Amino acid sequence: MSDFGILSTGAYIPRLRIDRAIIAAAHRWMAPGLVGAAKGSRAFRSWDEDAITMAVEAARDCLRGTNRELLGALHVASTNFPYADLQNSAVVADALRLPRDVRSADLSGSQRCGTSALLQAFRVGEPALVVASDAPVGKPGSARELGYGAGAAAFAIGEGASATRLLGSASRTVGFVDHFRAAGERYDYFWEERWVRDEGYLKIVPEAIAAALADAGLQAADIGVFVMPSLLKGAAAAVARAAGVSAALASDLDDGCGYAGAAHAPLMLAHALERASPGDRLMLVGFGQGVDVLVLEAGANARPAGQRGVSGALANGLATDSYLRMLSFYDGINVEWGMRSERSSKTALSEQHRSAAQNAGFVAGSCPACGTVQFPRLEYCVNPECGAPADGFEDVPLADAPARLLTHTSDWLSYHPAPPLHVGFVQFDNGARLIMEVVDVGPEGIEPGVPLDMVLRIKERDRPRGYNRYFWKSAPAAA
Amino acid sequence: MARGIKDKVAIIGMGCSKFGERWDAGTPLLMREAFDEALHDAGVERGMIEAAWFGSCFDAVNVGNSAIPASTALRLDGIPVTRVENMCATGTEALRAAAYAVASGAVDIALAIGAEKLKDTGYGGLPQPYKGTFNDMWLPINSAPAGFAQLADGYRARHGIARDDLKQAIAHVSWKSHQNGVLSPKAHLRKPVSMETILNAPMIADPLGLYDCCGVSDGAAAAIVTTPEIARSLGKTDLVTIKAIQLSISSGVESTMSGWDGSYVPNTRNAARRAYAEAGIDDPRAQLDLVEVHDCFSITELVTMEDLGLSADGEAVRDVLDGFYDREGGGVPCQVDGGLKCFGHPIGASGLRMAYEVYTQLLGRAGARQLATPSMGLTHNLGGVPYQGIAAVSILGLS
């Protein structure tokens, strides 16, 4: 039997983690009270990650083995998109090599935009890829800085066997301002948490829960897992209690991830679905200037083999030990990078467009005359025995192709925002070879021969013009 | 089969500025030092030069592009002057062009001059080059040492050399050049350095430490070339002639295809093979009396010894540690003037600086560092990086 719903999920959490005790220790001089809340670790994005790159990684995890041609729409949600006027989801679509006729749109403006994107895809009823990706920025020394994390979750939605179905939903729109961030500002401005809980969550969410249950034709007791993110400790339990829902509370992913903004409700849902049994009913709550409540019934689409998922992403952390590194990656401190950092990173947009077919989605070419797989693809085949014109080259995507490190060095001389720059020759099993940056290298370093994964990252940030140049980098393959 | 230029071109005058951090000198003054010495050595007047080639690499911190700055600095009025640029092989390219002009009969007397002013950047190391709008989309922006350092991984894997053994050998490469630099009055770095200091220096690009990297210097070097017949008519008796100049440039094979193992520089092997054929050399280890190679980094010099056929494959570590390339090691002295490591590396001048040392040694004018009776020497330049670069090999000899 075929149902419309979630066919697969995918997730990404940056590998970089830091113990909250390290952050609190750095602020002890001015905020000694932070130490008490400094439990576990949080994820933080590297200097070369943003809502776009994390969305691509979650989507790749979700789309493993699925037919991208069937996707009709792409929706990407975030409150921290790198671009205000340049469709972020279009950059994601190019990196994913989605078909050109896909309808793409960005959703933003509220902590609820991730669940709104999901609900909208269900209501429209067309095959779609929904991704929520966020890395909220906490002001140094604030509780938010401790509580925030980063990550992305992706959902492929369409007709398929054993899909996770939407049984019912309800939304409320209320101009309740628990916090805000003006366009162009770096940090959020928050009102008192107790007021947010009592007049916000507890007044707005329960009525929507009742409406969603009615829409689904279910009772509160039918719900098995309650999925509601909140930075306020105990808010999910209080809301469930007030709404009469006695379901198990989904993990808040506080340890190892942290509150990932608009991506957090989707991440918690993806995590809960990985653990759900077919037939389990889950209630998803997205709060922000109102609320979206979705009642879902899990299909048999728990994390398939080979998929990272939230559990895999949580387990694949890389412990770091410097608060100032995290602060620098979030532009919270401007350290001395030396004159080499003055090099212009201006992108020729016309060249970017010309070479997008190979650079955006990381696509090599295979020469029809001699079979040599090559990146970059230039005007003639690189094989000196061949040299055929490149007109008939066949596309060979490299993003998921097996590869190993051939040679490597750690470069302390070049300007790099996360020194040293790890760089080396990447040898693909299919014969392609190129020199690439290697990211997420632990303190133990790397050796020739290690298997590598490909990841989309920011290659260079053109700070004076506010433009990121994205390209693919390699990373030690997940164990 | 082309006949080549062997013995068709004689070098009748050479000059070289003092290399180093020349805070006192702009590029025109550096060029003047080299030019005046070359004119005086050749015994010709400026007006007798019929064509000139000017090599410079980084135009952003030097004198800009085109040959106009050289023509203006040296007052070469109304004759053809051309700027050449081929990264670190630029100096050799200037010499190659001047030699070809003479060998073809197009001119009787030609000038090759290379100059670089690297110490106007405000920081240590080389300026960061621009790779073009397309390559900037995907190529990592790594430093020059990061490009060459990877030879160590490739070499170790191919020959099964332990990390510490290779580090010891490349440290000896630098130690030897520092010993030689002491005896070289125009060299940039003229202090001996201990093996301990070299081995424990801060890391630049693993496994290359600070002393595994060459000096970044200001300087200029020049050559005046003509035919052997004109040279003799000018009263020259001991003639240094060009036996060969060959180049090889990457087309993307090493960096794009899967055949190269990263342990050697294919371009050097190509250029050397052709240069030996042009010069009639079949046993370089026995026939060459000195070599000036492109030791931009210690690991480069080590693998170059094999690429030039001086050491057998896998044997360079032992030859280096045995002192075969030391000035008084009984083998083939390498970098007797200190090399790029200590004489310095003003990019556009380096190829001509190497020729200057070989020329000086062949004519017996090298003073405290003079070798016994050299009659044949080799210069070697590497531009770019091992996997995407330019190799130039020249052979000079007494005719």
What does this structure look like?
- The complex is a heterodimer of chains A (479) and B (399).
- Chain A is of the alpha+beta class and 479 residues long.
- Chain A folds into 2 domains: 4-329, Peroxisomal Thiolase, Chain A, domain 1; 346-362 and 398-476, OB fold (Dihydrolipoamide Acetyltransferase, E2P) (Beta Barrel), CATH 2.40.50.
- Chain A contains 12 helices and 23 strands.
- In chain A, the strands form 6 sheets. Chain A has a 5-stranded mixed beta sheet with strand order 1-7-6-4-5, with helices on both faces.
- Chain B has helices at 27-42, 68-74, 90-103, 135-138, 144-159, 163-181, 195-199, 228-233, 253-256, 266-279, 284-287, 298-307, 316-321, 339-342, 347-362, and strands at residues 10-16, 51-55, 81-84, 110-117, 203-205, 208-209, 218-226, 240-249, 290-292, 376-385, 388-398.
- Chain B starts with 9 loop residues before the first strand and ends with a strand.
- In chain B, helix 3 crosses helix 15.
- Chain B has 15 helices and 11 strands.
- The radius of gyration of chain B is 20 Å and the shape is globular.
- The chains are: A alpha+beta (479), B alpha/beta (399).
- Chains A and B meet through helix 11, strand 19, strand 20, strand 21 and strand 23 of A and helix 4, helix 5, strand 5 and helix 9 of B.
Q: Any idea what the shape of chain B is?
A: globular
Mean pLDDT of chain B: 97
**How would a crystallographer describe the biggest sheet of chain A?**
5 strands, mixed
* CATH architecture call of the largest domain in chain A: 3-Layer(aba) Sandwich
How would you describe the shape of chain A?
globular
Q: How much of the polypeptide of chain A forms β-strand, as a percent range? A: 25-35%
Please give the oligomerization state of what you see: heterodimer
- SS elements, strand count of chain B: 11
Structural class of chain A: alpha+beta
CATH homology-level superfamily of the largest domain in chain A:
Thiolase/Chalcone synthase
Strand order of the largest sheet of chain B: 3-2-4-7-1-8-11-10-9
Give the total of domains of chain A.
2
Spans of chain B with pLDDT under 50 lasting ≥5 residues?
none
Strand portion of chain B: 15-25%
Radius of gyration of chain A: 23 Å
Number of helices of chain A: 12
